[in-house]
Amino acid sequence: MLAAQDATALNQQDPHKLRIHSLETFGTHDGPGIRFVIFVQGCQFRCLYCQNPDTLDVNGGKFEEMSELLRRAKNMRSYFAKTGGVTVSGGEPLLQRGKLLTFFKMLHEEGINTCLDTNGRLLDQQTKDLLEETDLIMLDVKHFDDEWHKKLTGLSNNTTLKLAAYREETGKPMWLRYVLVPGWSDQPEHIEALGQHFKDYQTIEKIELIPYHKLGVNKWEVLNMEYELKDVEPPTQESIEEAAEILRKYFKEVKIK
Q: What per-residue string of b and e applies to 95-118 under the rule 16 or more CB within 10 Å gives b?
């Protein structure tokens, strides 16, 4: 697991730079509209199905000046139109929440929309300050049941659910994301429980249901890491639709990715 000192260092070192893994221009899968997507480096979860295990190491990736990232975002502004903007994904962005607060303020000064894709593991004052500058949060709920969440990620979902509750209190928009993994996160009773938990939330605009796939397995092999779900196949169309039907009872929109 990620050592506390490593997490602190990642959030504090080089305050005008973000440690990033990669960039994507003209992204259409990470938030509304056309987006400039910044994938940051480092994550405290160890999801068994992680499609980008090369983003986990807090000492990996490279530092990028925020001013350069802002320049690139400004150059794309004409493509953002009314709905697009900048999304910071990961890895886990909240590990650099203090620096992201500065960056999101820079983006807002230029009238650029901000979106944060997070697992919600951290909730402190810095996180709350960042969420105030976040136009949309996409919250990845790996599993609603805490024990299954620990099996999938190595950690509890307690803070994730607390962050969702805090976001609801602020009245600011939120999307949920849920990866459907056969035998791991496709249990109807737990999907039903997730829906029941969030059914009265007013800030949730949609939930994105993401079918499990094996596209990142080769990265685990390159990194000499054991992929524990190698025998798990992607969900059938029937099981995807069954999960979606349960979620449609509770959410305004269910988007199958």
A: bbbbbbbebbebbeeeebbbbbbb
Per-residue pLDDT tens, the chain, 257 aa: give them: 555 557 788 898 889 999 999 999 999 999 999 999 999 999 999 999 999 999 999 999 999 999 999 999 999 999 999 999 999 999 999 999 999 999 999 999 999 999 999 999 999 999 999 999 999 999 999 999 999 999 999 999 999 999 999 999 999 999 999 999 999 999 999 999 999 999 999 999 999 999 999 988 999 999 999 999 999 999 999 999 999 999 999 999 999 99
Element (H, E) at 149: helix 146-153
DSSP state of 12: H
Reading the block at residue 152, the tokens are 């999938």
Judge contact between 192 and 173, C-beta under 8 A: no
CA quadruple 124, 207, 156, 214: dihedral sign: negative
